[in-house]
Amino acid sequence: MEIIQVVGYKDSGKTTLVRELVNAFTQAGYNIGTLKNSPHDHDPEPEGTDTRLHREAGAAITAFVTPNRAAWVEERKVTTEEIVETMARRGVDILIVEGFKNAPYPKIALIRSETDTALIDLPNTITVATRTPISSIDAAAESRGIARFHVPDTASFGPITAFWLDRVRSNRKAK
């Protein structure tokens, strides 16, 4: 299973890029999974739903099934590695991870300004995208052999999506 990680600070375009990657890889015939890091401890189920009531009564795990989908909610901490292993067992070809800056996976770093420079030094950064050319970021990326893109409109990350689609195809051919 290939893993692509998208990192950046708030409003850098992470979710937009993840959606574009999911769409491109799905259209190319890959089975895609996503994993999102949330710093908030919010409940994924609305108040009053039956499965939330089950958990509030003490159930450690609940699931619901519809004719077209299923969802699980567990009342425990899980590691990123557990989720990655589960996705692999479930037949995911490519897992796209949003967040988890310090995870070891190949990264796309979305940098808004020079104040986000630390993102380029995260482990396994393969690609850097800025909205405008930033000479210090460009120089740092070039010196590290990191692909860089200038994406003025974060409503579309087409060149980055094409880069990663080619990268995944090349990796799969090499295996």
UniProtKB/TrEMBL annotation:
CDD domains reported in the protein's UniProt record: MobB
InterPro entries reported in the protein's UniProt record: MGD_biosynthesis_adapter, MobB_dom, P-loop_NTPase
Recorded coiled-coil stretches: none
Domain Molybdopterin-guanine dinucleotide biosynthesis protein B (MobB) per the UniProt entry, residue ranges: 3-130
Domain of life (superkingdom): Bacteria
PANTHER family reported for this sequence: MOLYBDOPTERIN-GUANINE DINUCLEOTIDE BIOSYNTHESIS ADAPTER PROTEIN, MOLYBDOPTERIN-GUANINE DINUCLEOTIDE BIOSYNTHESIS ADAPTER PROTEIN-RELATED
Official protein name in the record: Molybdopterin-guanine dinucleotide biosynthesis protein B
